[in-house]
Each structure stands twice: as C-alpha cells, then as structure tokens.
C-alpha cells in the first residue's frame, strides 16, 4: 500500500456558484435516473395516462425531503409540491398524500441500484485517474479495491411490523438494517442492501459476495470458519478480525520487520482456525497480531501473502474499516436518515437508497462529503439566507478550513507515531 493511501489527501474543491444552488443536486439525480430507467422496466401503473405522479417526480420529491431543512414528512412534501418553484425543479405536478403513500409500493428498487452504480462508477473513474502507479499490487498486477463491509440498524416505528426483530441495544423491538460495502479508497458507499434487522449480517454478506472483491470486516464476520472457505472459493481477498478466544492451529511463524513493529504489529503466522473435530477448520490463512490504541490485541486474518500485503498494511487496512462507521454516523446524525417518510419494506429501502445516492451526489459536487457546518450552509442557502454568489465564497472558506484542520491532525498523528 502506498503512502498516498495512508492519509486521505483531498484536493481543494472546484465548483461554480450555481453548482449547488437552484436544486442542482436534484437535477443530476434526474439525469442519472433517466439513464437507469432505460435499463429497468417500470411498473405498468406508471404507463397509465391517468397517473399524475410520475416515478421521477416521486423519487425526486423523496430525495428533496432528505436534503431540505423544512419538509421532512409526506404531508410536508405533499404541501410543498404545490409551490411553483418546487414544481419547476422537483416534481411537475402537485402530489397528494394518497399518491405519495401508494407509489412506494410500485417502485422497483433496482432502478435506484442502477443509479447508485452509475454514480459509484463516476467517482471511481476520478479515483483511478489520480491513482499513482505504485498503488498496484506487484504480484497480481492489479489494484486491490478494498471494501469495508458492515451493517447498521435504524430504529423503526412500532407500526412497521415487518421490521420486528426483538430487543435492540436501546430496547427497540423493530429495526431496519442497512448492509453496506464501503469503498475505503474512494470514500463512498459502493453496494447496499436493506432488510429487517433480524437478518444475520454474515449470512447477508454470504448471499451478496461479489467474485474477486476485497473485504475488510469486524469479528462478527470471522466467527464461522467455513465462511473463510467461501471467500476463497469466490476468489475474494479479505482482512477480517477474529475473536480473541478462537482456536488457532499454527502452521508456521512469520518474521516481523521493523516497519511492522512501528505500526503496532506484535506477531504474524500462517495458521488454520478450529480443531477440525466438531467443526470444520478454516483454510490456511495468515494471522497478524496488532496492538490497538487502547492496548487491546487485535487478531487479523488475511489470505494475502507478505509480498502482497505487509503486516503493517494489514493493521492500517483494519484501521480504515472505521470509515464505514463514520459514514453510518453521518447518515443518521447529519442527513437524518432515521426519520421515516415511507414505512413499508419497499418504502424504507427506497429512502435508504436515496440517502446513499444523495450523499454521493453531494460528494461529487463538493469533492468530499459535507460536514455539519457545510450541510447547514447549504440549507441556509435553500432558505434564502445565503445568495448564490455568496454561497461559493462561504463554502470555499469552510472547506478550506476543514482541510487545514484535517492536515494538522494528520501531522500530529504522524509525529506521535514517531
């Protein structure tokens, strides 16, 4: 792994005054949606001449509900759809409450998955274009694009009976779970699926494994030894933490270099997990023992050799797994995705996919995901408290200030390691 991948260095954003004004994000969404609609057949009801609420109008209005600072309910969106500017920029006709409630059952989520896929490819093209040649894996002669995979639960309402799963950490009996693969280099959500919280995260990943992908995951995914064999069968690379009490059958001890020790690596070996009596052993893999920030010993499993991924880079990769946790927090605390505007299984899936799409569109516009202050600035602009011309200046100043703080923290962390 190259030095450039160890700390995310974001170039100063470049945008015009109107890039975020006048519902620019929503326009880009409609353009991407038009491309996706050509690939996915819409419900026959959308071809009925009597229907006034089109698919693009409904999805645009729901995305607008996530981005605007005022209307966060179906009733609020129905009311604002009567305003001339909203009808020009978001939906072509006023939307009744009944229509908004009905359409959530008619939308094929596949069209949103296509939109997300198109936007992910746009972002990855930018990342690949700026990637240094030394970031290529010398043995495989290809870039390893690591995905941090995890799930996060969004508390559901009592009347959302389909989401029943038992007692949650705060006593919630119902929840919706987002299973997400997060591209750590591009800093974007790459693949997503939504279901009730009762579904096993490891089982869901097993169903959605993509051949040849590379996964970073916490110890929940390392509890079943047969799962490592399934990853091998799919040709997947992995860096997964295992439980401290896991039974380890050591095959060979491996050397630890000075650079590895500087990164907190204590030991590495080739081994199999399990005794092979009552449960199957894992395939032969490499274990890296790393001392965490709080002194905890982390045991990380990978199927990559030392010449493909050093022990220090294994430790760094697992540290970057936390980026998916930061993303979940951003969705819930800044975007406010946990407030349900649609309560059916399909409606909740639509809303979460629109949140992922909205975050990607904003990142493509700004060069990074907006912080709390940047998010507030954009919402002040929507309220008319900041003009189009002033928006560019305010955003540029705020983003530059955040970049300086980020670089300062990176330097401090570097000297602490020294």
Structural summary, described in words:
With 418 residues, the protein is an alpha+beta fold. Among the domains are: 15-109 and 343-417, no CATH class; 238-320, no CATH class. The protein has helices at residues 24-37, 55-67, 74-80, 84-89, 97-103, 109-129, 201-208, 225-233, 258-262, 311-320, 322-334, 345-366, 372-382, 388-417, and strands spanning 146-155, 175-183, 188-196, 214-217, 237-242, 248-254, 265-273, 285-291, 297-302. A nine-stranded mixed β-sheet has the order 3-2-1-4-5-9-8-7-6, sandwiched between helices. Helix 8 links the parallel strand 4 (214-217) and strand 5. Helix 1 runs antiparallel to helix 2 and helix 13 packs antiparallel against helix 14. The longest helix is centred in the last third of the chain and has 30 residues, at 388-417. The radius of gyration is 23 Å and the shape is globular. Mean pLDDT is 87; it is low at 1-12 and 134-141.
Overall form: globular
The N- and C-terminal alpha carbons lie at a distance of 19 Å
Q: Let me know the largest β-sheet.
A: 9 strands, mixed
In which order are the strands of the major sheet placed?
3-2-1-4-5-9-8-7-6
- The helix/strand series, from N terminus to C terminus, equals HHHHHHEEEHEHEEHEEEHHHHH
Beta percentage is 15-25%
Helices, by number, come to 14
Query: What Rg is obtained from the alpha carbons, in whole angstroms?
Result: 23 Å
């Amino acid at each position: 792994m190259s030095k450039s991948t160890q700390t995310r260095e974001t170039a100063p954003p470049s945008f015009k005054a109107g890039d975020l004004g006048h519902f620019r994000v929503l326009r880009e969404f409609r353009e991407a949606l038009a491309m996706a609609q050509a690939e996915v057949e819409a419900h026959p009801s959308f071809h009925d001449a009597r229907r006034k609420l089109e698919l693009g109008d409904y999805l645009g209005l729901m995305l607008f509900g996530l981005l605007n600072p005022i209307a966060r309910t179906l009733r609020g969106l129905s009311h604002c759809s009567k305003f001339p500017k909203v009808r020009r920029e978001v939906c072509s006709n006023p939307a009744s409450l009944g229509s908004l409630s009905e359409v959530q059952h008619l939308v094929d989520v596949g069209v949103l998955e296509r939109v997300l896929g198109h936007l992910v490819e746009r972002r990855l093209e930018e990342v690949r274009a700026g990637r240094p040649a030394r970031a290529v894996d010398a043995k495989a002669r290809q870039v390893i694009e690591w995905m941090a995979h995890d799930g996060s639960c969004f508390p559901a309402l009592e009347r959302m009976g389909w989401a029943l799963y038992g007692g949650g950490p705060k006593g919630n009996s119902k929840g919706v779970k987002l299973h997400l693969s997060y591209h750590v280099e591009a800093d974007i959500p790459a693949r997503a699926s939504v279901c009730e919280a009762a579904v096993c995260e490891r089982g869901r990943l097993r169903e959605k494994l993509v051949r040849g992908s590379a996964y970073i995951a916490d110890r929940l995914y390392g509890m079943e030894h047969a799962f490592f064999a399934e990853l091998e069968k799919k040709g997947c690379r992995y860096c997964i933490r295992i439980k401290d009490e896991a039974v380890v059958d050591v095959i060979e001890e491996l050397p630890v270099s000075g650079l590895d020790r500087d990164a907190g690596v204590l030991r590495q070996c080739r081994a199999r997990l399990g005794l092979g009596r009552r449960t199957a052993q894992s395939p032969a893999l490499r274990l890296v023992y790393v001392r965490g920030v709080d002194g905890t010993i982390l045991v990380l499993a990978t199927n990559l050799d030392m010449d493909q991924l050093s022990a220090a880079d294994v430790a760094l990769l697992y540290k970057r797994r936390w980026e998916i946790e930061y993303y979940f927090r951003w969705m819930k605390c800044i975007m406010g995705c946990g407030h349900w505007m649609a309560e059916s299984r399909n409606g909740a899936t639509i809303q979460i996919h629109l949140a992922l799409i909205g975050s990607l569109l904003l990142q493509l516009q700004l060069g990074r995901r907006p912080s709390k202050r940047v998010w507030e600035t954009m919402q002040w602009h929507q309220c008319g408290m900041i003009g189009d011309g002033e928006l560019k200046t305010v955003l540029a100043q705020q983003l530059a200030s955040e970049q300086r703080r980020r670089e300062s923290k990176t330097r401090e962390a570097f000297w602490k390691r020294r």
